[in-house]
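Known limitations

Structure tokens in this collection are predictions and should be treated as such. Users comparing against experimental data should check residue numbering before alignment. To illustrate the layout, the record for MotA/TolQ/ExbB proton channel family protein is reproduced below. The input appears on top and the generated tokens appear beneath it.
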Amino acid sequence: MLLFIQEAAEQVLEEASQEKTLSIIQLIKDGGPGGQIIIAILFVLLGVALYIYFERFFAVKSASQEDSNFMNQIRDFVLNGNLDSAKALCESTNTPSSRLVGKGISRIGKPLDDINTAIENAGKLEVYKLEKNVSVLATIAGAAPMIGFLGTVIGMIVAIHEIANSGGQIDIKMLSDGLYTAMTTTVAGLIVGIVAYIAYNHLVVRTDKVVYQMEAKSVEFLDLLNEPV
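Generated tokens:
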């Protein structure tokens, strides 16, 4: 009898000493259909956010790469009256700033206000192109945590429903589906929201840098036109 009790105690101690581990996949499986649907939506939003970020990042990076000697060449061409070469240089450079300067060159001979207006309108189009789909990142950054909290509410409703149907006897295992849904969806929503928020702000900073370059080149070109011949 004592030997049996000793073996049972050793078995209990061995089971208690075993390390409990949780995998992400198992957490998602234990979350039930409601939690799995929420997690799937968040994964889709994460994929969209990463795609937009990298696509815009390389586009803005390409737009920011300019030849430091570009405006010097434009100055020489314009002062020498070689407008065709100046236009060809703008077309070959193919950056937002060069397109603005090219727009201004195509208006040379008209009043300075008309040239300035044409450059401003072209600048608005270039900024719109740079900011394409960036607002979607801001939307995902705000919507993902709310979708995660929606999963939390669904999980709590499932847990309360199980309590109501338990006849007053609460079993942790019975509540696990609801609790897993509540916790995993909240964490997933916050992770997606944080990633999208950081990506959005990084793109805004990079885009502002390109817009500053565009403004600087436009002002330099207008100053060139105001120079005395």
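For this record: The chain is about 85% helix and 0% strand. The radius of gyration is 31 Å. Please report discrepancies through the issue tracker.
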